[in-house]
Amino acid sequence: MEEEEPSDGQAANTNALNEAHQETATRKDSVDEGLPDDFLSLDKKAVEQLSEGLISHYLPSLQSSKLALQELTQNQVVLLDTLDQEISKFKECNSILDINALFTEAKHYHNKLVNIQKEMIMLHEKTSKLKKRALKLQQKKQEENLRQEQQREREFEREKQLTAKPAKRTLYPNPV
């Protein structure tokens, strides 16, 4: 089995493990107390080698996974920004649709207003004609009433003239 040169991270981990093992070995209340020193040294070497092997086996894949996760996170941020932009575009479109609806409604009410104005003008013309006609009828009625009154006065005068009048007495005798 070939030994690979440890990277900086591996060296740091190895150093940390060595220090931890040395502290445990120096303690008197250690679990390993009473075991032969050869056994402890073999055990330490085995633990060190197993730890280094485990780290060297999994570290590259963990680092590549870390890079892949960072890239995914960056892509997710970009996607979220793009999604926010698209949402704002949709909101803009909705507001434009609302504005178009308002313009359509305004056009509809403008047409109603124009129709009402036309109707008012037509009604004004009709009322003007009716007023003129009423005035003419009133004038004709007055003329008719005046004519009838004059006719009555003439008839009254005629009857007055036709009625017998008593003879007036005169102071002078009748020369007959």
UniProtKB/TrEMBL annotation:
Origin: domain of life: Eukaryota
Amino acid composition bias (Basic and acidic residues), ranges on this chain: 20-31, 140-162
Coiled-coil spans in chain: none
Keywords tagged on the record: Cytoplasm
Subcellular locations according to the entry: Cytoplasm
One Pfam family matching this protein: Snapin_Pallidin
GO cellular component, one term: BLOC-1 complex
InterPro entries, alphabetized: BLOC-1_pallidin, Snapin/Pallidin/Snn1
Region (Disordered): 1-34, 136-176
Function as written in the Swiss-Prot or TrEMBL entry: Component of the BLOC-1 complex, a complex that is required for normal biogenesis of lysosome-related organelles (LRO), such as platelet dense granules and melanosomes. In concert with the AP-3 complex, the BLOC-1 complex is required to target membrane protein cargos into vesicles assembled at cell bodies for delivery into neurites and nerve terminals. The BLOC-1 complex, in association with SNARE proteins, is also proposed to be involved in neurite extension. May play a role in intracellular vesicle trafficking, particularly in the vesicle-docking and fusion process.
Family: Belongs to the BLOC1S6 family.
Protein name: Biogenesis of lysosome-related organelles complex 1 subunit 6
Origin species: Xenopus laevis (African clawed frog)
Gene (name only): bloc1s6.S
